[in-house]
Design goal:
- Six copies of one chain form a homohexamer.
- Chain A is α/β, with parallel strands linked by helices and 284 residues long.
- In chain A, helix 7 runs parallel beside helix 9.
- Chains A and B meet through helix 5, strand 5 and helix 6 of A and helix 5, strand 5 and helix 6 of B.
Chain lengths: 284, 284, 284, 284, 284, 284
Amino acid sequence: MFEKQIEKAETLVEALPYIKKFRGETIVIKYGGSIMNDDSLKKKFASDIVLLKYVGINPVVVHGGGKEISRWMEKIGKEPSFVDGQRVTDAETMEITEMVLSGKINNEIVTLINSIGGNAVGLSGKDANLFTAKKITGKDQKDLGFVGEIVKTNEGLLNTLQSANYIPVVSSVGQSLEGETLNMNADNVAAGLAIALHAQKLIYLTDIQGISKEGKFLEHITLFDAEELLNHPDIKGGMKPKLSCSVKALQQSVKDVHIINGLIAHAVLLEVFTDYGIGTMISR
Amino acid sequence: MFEKQIEKAETLVEALPYIKKFRGETIVIKYGGSIMNDDSLKKKFASDIVLLKYVGINPVVVHGGGKEISRWMEKIGKEPSFVDGQRVTDAETMEITEMVLSGKINNEIVTLINSIGGNAVGLSGKDANLFTAKKITGKDQKDLGFVGEIVKTNEGLLNTLQSANYIPVVSSVGQSLEGETLNMNADNVAAGLAIALHAQKLIYLTDIQGISKEGKFLEHITLFDAEELLNHPDIKGGMKPKLSCSVKALQQSVKDVHIINGLIAHAVLLEVFTDYGIGTMISR
Amino acid sequence: MFEKQIEKAETLVEALPYIKKFRGETIVIKYGGSIMNDDSLKKKFASDIVLLKYVGINPVVVHGGGKEISRWMEKIGKEPSFVDGQRVTDAETMEITEMVLSGKINNEIVTLINSIGGNAVGLSGKDANLFTAKKITGKDQKDLGFVGEIVKTNEGLLNTLQSANYIPVVSSVGQSLEGETLNMNADNVAAGLAIALHAQKLIYLTDIQGISKEGKFLEHITLFDAEELLNHPDIKGGMKPKLSCSVKALQQSVKDVHIINGLIAHAVLLEVFTDYGIGTMISR
Amino acid sequence: MFEKQIEKAETLVEALPYIKKFRGETIVIKYGGSIMNDDSLKKKFASDIVLLKYVGINPVVVHGGGKEISRWMEKIGKEPSFVDGQRVTDAETMEITEMVLSGKINNEIVTLINSIGGNAVGLSGKDANLFTAKKITGKDQKDLGFVGEIVKTNEGLLNTLQSANYIPVVSSVGQSLEGETLNMNADNVAAGLAIALHAQKLIYLTDIQGISKEGKFLEHITLFDAEELLNHPDIKGGMKPKLSCSVKALQQSVKDVHIINGLIAHAVLLEVFTDYGIGTMISR
Amino acid sequence: MFEKQIEKAETLVEALPYIKKFRGETIVIKYGGSIMNDDSLKKKFASDIVLLKYVGINPVVVHGGGKEISRWMEKIGKEPSFVDGQRVTDAETMEITEMVLSGKINNEIVTLINSIGGNAVGLSGKDANLFTAKKITGKDQKDLGFVGEIVKTNEGLLNTLQSANYIPVVSSVGQSLEGETLNMNADNVAAGLAIALHAQKLIYLTDIQGISKEGKFLEHITLFDAEELLNHPDIKGGMKPKLSCSVKALQQSVKDVHIINGLIAHAVLLEVFTDYGIGTMISR
Amino acid sequence: MFEKQIEKAETLVEALPYIKKFRGETIVIKYGGSIMNDDSLKKKFASDIVLLKYVGINPVVVHGGGKEISRWMEKIGKEPSFVDGQRVTDAETMEITEMVLSGKINNEIVTLINSIGGNAVGLSGKDANLFTAKKITGKDQKDLGFVGEIVKTNEGLLNTLQSANYIPVVSSVGQSLEGETLNMNADNVAAGLAIALHAQKLIYLTDIQGISKEGKFLEHITLFDAEELLNHPDIKGGMKPKLSCSVKALQQSVKDVHIINGLIAHAVLLEVFTDYGIGTMISR
């Protein structure tokens, strides 16, 4: 009798070496991709975050917007506009973007985590000037509107919240020194915060398995490998900026970057609490 | 020479007795009304908040939505619906309401305060379960949709933020134990937080001078007077629930309630840093 | 793919409600019985203790001696002596008892826990006067030699160690006010420390399933039931004093007592992290 | 209506940028000159000190003696004695000097500050060995008696008092390693403490507008300018040692030195809370 | 060999039980009487104070003025004036009294303690409003001038200094709510501070052995005995108010009062570190 | 009268300069030699340790086993075995050694210190991995069995205990990374802990006066002298490794090493609280 329960207990104690290794460390998780459309996966993700916190690891969740922004733009009859294939964010688009990111998606994640026993607090770059952004342009300096990248972080608030046992959930909306609200790439924001917090790990949840090169999936590569890969033709689309952010994070203070498939249930726990993991790990 | 500067210095030192009296105390300010439509007044309001914080007083700002919600409802072609004169909040209205309150107005106030040198952090009832709500009904138990009132506060997060010198800005969006997002009366939320924080003062910014009775403006009344006033025919419209919240706050832990005209520049400073004040003060 | 890992992750997150419930609480575990002769079970026990600590629960381990004392008495050619069936502890027996308990078994448990990543510190009642004992006598005041029971605790050292994240392991050797070293009943010591620490749980590891009455196993009883049971003929042998200690602990400050079978692998985790548990639970 | 009050509120918020800039910093103020003979100015000075403290700036007041020493020397029929124009401090003069400085003037300043709501504590170099002095001689090594300059500071007491929100008021009486009580130049003591505390500002209250050179008043000069000025014929009398102290302070850790006219009401506030100020500012 | 040193070491360890008993407690010592005229005794007194501090006891020294005030009054040609045998303190007398107490005697004690390795800080009732006084009158309401007794203490500064390991030395000069400087009875001040600090002991240094009644010296009496003694004809002169202060201190929060002969070398140590002591001990 | 008590008080204050010098510092004392067989000397030793703690110095006691191990080996009929004159520790010898050191001698010292008012806590290298050992071999790599030397310390537990005012008592039993229990040279352990704690002093209690060279006793030598002495023919037997440990300790972080005669009563106090001391002092 009790065989099944004993097996479960074994599973709990198998996590001990990983807990020991990462206790007290910060792990920044970029939450995004199709997982955001799957209620069951979302709840599992939230469980992973709470479990990390409960065992003494400090998770920080960073998120972007996904399809929800488009849905609301349609609602108000707004046509998307592009320049050389890049979305242009005009003032009204920025308004709706911020409302969706900071007023809807962020709250949903906060609520989900709290419903499982976490103590999440929603933030954006504007709260206590968590991060400052600057406007970026497209190819040939073409105007993309209110789009920015991180230029400075002010991580004091995150430290205050972490040491009081709260879980920060950060939407990728920032502000420039000139006071403009800017739409930020969430991968870029996650990397910036991971660097500022000297994170142990930066984890990107994506819709694919990880990085592949010449048809071969890469389980574990070094920063050096990653730097080389940046110019490889197999690195394209969304993976290119993600890898670029990864390299920057590792060059500065982050220990490991993981690019994993968020569509696998409990992807975060699997990646943190097993040796081989489920995606691509890039280490210094 | 220097006469004008000396006069200004005199003004600064005139504030000393008030600073001495309220240092270390919490003041909850319900921000709302037409002030939200006036950029110059808004900036002055933000200055007042930062000054309070700088002299060692702990302000907490609570806000509702005003006309911005209606503007966005129109944008998506949504007709307002009423039951016995009370607005009914259906699911889609609640969605847009939360986005406007927590994703737009809250961020604007945070940004305004930070631009003046404060360290504001935006919150809603959902963050770390700051407050829990329950659905309320209209007259004769008529369904008003997703509308609620505060039933429980969890003020730990406010204490953490205050002692680390942040200024909390709270949107009046809450959540029920059943997980429904509810639109809250901001006057009710402000009173609930003031009670939980044992606030020295609860200040309501309105569009009128304060409370008048039988054609006479009331500068200073007692809790006893206020309890009597509750049933007076002159107390009607929005003043009735506001006075009811005031009475509840004073009956529990709040020392003074002020109902003042937010359209007067620096209304908050004038009320806190002078003896007579500019509106109606209700004291225990 | 990953099915097995995902299942394991599910097991981890299933523990969340229990972790949430018991975080920050103290659990005193009386370690003893045949588990002490089984290297595999011992290691599993140590894992359970470390896991509790890692998730923010404060375990305190109390142990007696078991067969090891007899083995060493034989080695020095010492015959056991009895009065009315109770062992008599003369001075030389006390000497060897203390050496085995505090110098051998205690160190083994400490080492085991540390090998798994815990930070255990071995103590006895003598360290910082952790507990003070008084001599007890057998039936009709017959002299049992150096045998005692707890009369006073001085739990400051345990608090210091717990808040610095150490795991205390306490041998049941005490000292009287007169300076005599006394052999203590470990069940009694565990109850005394659980009371002093206002423990959430006091867990007795035994060699049987728990408490049975009239052929029926009792899964969950109240303190009231337990008080009644004390005089029931089915409660006999070692269970009688154990139940008596349980009742005393519950009457004072302890919330739950568990009498469980230490021969089930991971018995402690199973009892703490599931609702039904594996033994008898007595609650206030 | 309320125009005047609103104007006052404007004045308060105008101070915000200065408060922000100097919060948490230390400002050492040498109080002296004719202001000490004017009750109204003294009270205004005390208000300025309390206001600085209330907005989070840490003032330290250092004072010398002025005419009060002479008045008491006359009372006991003591003739002043000079060597090459420098006052000679014999043992009895030192006794009366210490009594007047530490037992009269110091207490008056403490009392004044406390009457306005500050929490001032009076000290001299002797308290917790705040500073140690050595005897100095006049021209050609002529004996000046018990006159000294600062050689070592022990600022721990000031840090303790500041962080507990007290305002230190320091009389310029010191002690040599040999145990002699020495009369110190208060400008020298103020500079020594400003250096030890890494003060943001060192402010000298004098009876003149500031530094003038070749008939031209100097509003803002650099440390380099000040070093050059030291040998300029226009720098003479009491200004020479004051400028010398200023240069030493700036060469070490002090950020700005201000030499201002204490006879202007609220001179300290005007200098700290405006950009142009009212006297001469010397910056690194 | 080493016999003498070993004997000295024995003496050190003999103090252990007393140190254990009084560690962390506050002892207020009224320093006064003829000891103030004997340099050797003064130094021994200072050593006692430093030793108490070094072993973890918190001494607070309170002093009056003795003959030094009279010496300075003579210097300025001031005649003492009396009403019914009580000294009248006019404004000029108060001025010189404060200068002597706070500017001379206080500094001497501070310096003495510091020379032996203590960290003394001189205070009066004016520092941080340590105590507030009110004017008292003589028999039949006759005006005694600027003479007062303690009505309120504000012991925060003493706590701050004690916990930062400083030794407070307090002169018996106070201030009334009306801002008048008042000459205080030092016995009264010592009792007031001992009460406010919940002192373990209040020790009065006098010039006599202690209390005698009907020719018999009293080594140890109870508060009850002391209350009875208050009206006994043998209690007269300075002993009457001293006993009255003692009774008041014991009735409130002080554990023991000691009235001892300051002319015995190391009187304080002898009283604190031996069981029988050298004077009269009054206990609750 | 009181002459004798006054003399004793003088003795107490004579200790002031030494207390001042060593307050807050750590002193590691290797307790061993014939003192362990003398109940009166042991009690005096314990008094010295408690007194050091009471005056703010942090003692750490390290002990070996002495004759008690041999006595217990005889009891179980175990013959000692030697290789080239060095004792060989087989598994059973190690078992009995640990029981005697950690289960008997350690407890005796703890109890002795506590009986005098100290708060001692017994530890070995196993507690919280206080120190890690590695096996050492004899001449020509001959196997000595379970004998080791310190290779790594983990002094966190000592810091925790010291700052909570406990006195650590450490038995010289360690563990290798491979999990073997090893018998350690206590001189080596004392030096290792002194280095890790940056101790002010490392004191070796021996049975001789200290170090002599060419018939001359050495009172005070430098580290340089000690390094030279290492190869001198007069340094032999147990003194050679002791001197070698001393040199290593001084080369790293320890300020002074003392080699003294534990048979002199209060040897520790005499050495710490007098200038000349009673043994050989080696200073950097």
